[in-house]
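It is worth pausing here to work through a concrete case rather than discussing structure prediction in the abstract. The textbook approach is simple: state the sequence, then state the predicted structure, then interpret. We follow exactly that order.
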Amino acid sequence: MIIKKLKTIITAIVAVSLYLTLTAVSCDIKPDNGDDDDNGEVVDPLPEPDEGAKEKLTINIAPPTVDPTDPTLVPNSRTTIPSDAIVITFKDGNAEIQNPVKTIDITNNKGHIVIKPTIEGNYSYYIQGITENGSVEIGGKNRINLTLNGTGITNPNGAAISILTEEGCQLRVEDNTANRLIDGTVATSTAKATLICEGPLDVVGKGTLQLRGKKADAIRCGGSITIDQASILVKEAAGHSIHCTSGEIKIAGGAIKTLSSQSGLNASDSNNGSITITGGIHRFSTLGDQAPAIKAAGSLALANRDTIITDTYGNAAHSIYVSGKTLISNSILCTYTLGSHIPVCIYGGDDINITGGNISHITVNGSGIFCKGDITINGGTISAISTAAGTAILTSEGKFSISDGSIAIYTESAYNMAIYSKGPLSIRGGKVELTSFNTSMGSASTLEISGGNVYCYSLSGYAIHSDGNLTLSGGLTLALGADGAGKALNTKSSILIRGGHLVAVGGKSSIPDASGSTQQSVIYNTTLYEPAIIAVKQINGQFIAVYKATRKYQPTISCLISGPEILPNTTYELYLKGSVTGSDHFHNIYFNNFNYTIGFLAKTVTTNGVPGGVNYFYE
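Step two, the predicted structure:
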């Protein structure tokens, strides 16, 4: 299939390549034009194609499935154990216990171990060996040290390990060991998780820990959770994969991969349920309805330089759901929502601040970012693909500010925008490339572009819309509205041109307010049945702007061009066709360092004396 040369599509498809590299999930994204003769090859056609005839994209990402098999566990238990440690070794359907401490009561009911200290202390425990019908329950008050030294515990009737100490546990997954915990599904089981800790839980060590939560959660903790270095694989969870009911979750490293019916990583404490990830490679997947991959009742901070993948497949299942503030920096974040009922890749109940990293969103029936507060983007790269979303891809109910970074969005829904803000929307820098079937970028308040490079393409609506003033005071903007009744720039108030470079093309004219503008503009209204080159030249001077149009407009086209080179009381010539070369361009707008081979002179105009005057090249 041929994918038209459109940077926003290609940029977003790069995110899919990353997804395929890091996971084994089957994924297919391709344009649907009924031609299957080229095996999905991506072709960059020459000459550049007509932008008005883009193929529809189809996104097919197969959800992961629960693998019911567990290969033979090779524990690789460590042989050297401290002499003062309590050691539990499962073997032959029972357990051997070494208890050098006389202040602990231990009962063993055919491999089901219950430990209760008679005198409180900071005891150390080692668990090793394999059992198909056993469990360990440790009570007390003081914090304990528990080492999984190559163990496989299956409890058909409840939790595999229950740490009931009030002050929690340091759980060490011994280096280079393999460990597996599985609970049961019997109706009489009241266990809330496979691994339960009533206090804070710190997971360390460089071993591997595999869990199945067949009845409920895989890991459930009544205190804060910290994870560093360990490799954790949750092969299934009927509830949450990792659930912190009181306190916060901090992940500093390791590798975590989860698959659950409810949320993957959940900090549900309404007072302190924050999540911070500063390292490691992680993937959180959910299959159930309304089941976020990551859910924080407090704030979320992603500051690792590694990769985080979140993918959801249920209806109304947001990929990331945060009730508080969200900060993203230096992370590679891939979010996917494949269910219905408008799931969101990142839902923020408060402000969202993005300062760096690489963020990609793929959604079939949802949106990329929805924020109840302000969105501030000061860096990083954001790319998004949507085929049938019902809301804007990036939405802010407060202010929306972009001062740096790169944003590329491609959406095919007839009902949504690429970027929408209820509050003021401002672009001060960076690169923004938006392609949509509806309006590309809109604000229910004011909208201002004062810097950066902005490309807005709409197939059936306005390129840029604002309810308040639409102001362009800097940067480089190309706005392509629809033909017919479509406008490049549309506002319920005034279009104010006060600086920067602008090319705005649509079926109807976008007319600046001369009294409020401070920079001259020229408008050319004509019929453009075929893609063409439009060039503006100062008489007896140099060509100051060239636009290489690659889209047909019927029956008429209105082209608005503005730049600081267009001066009052000066005559300008408009040329059509010809050819242009030069590397310094943005989506075929040339203002600097280009060579134009003259086609033919179409019109001339002498600008008026008003600083923000609007002037017409009449056909």
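Step three, interpretation. Residues 1-54 have pLDDT under 50 and may be disordered. The first strand starts at residue 27 and ends at 32.
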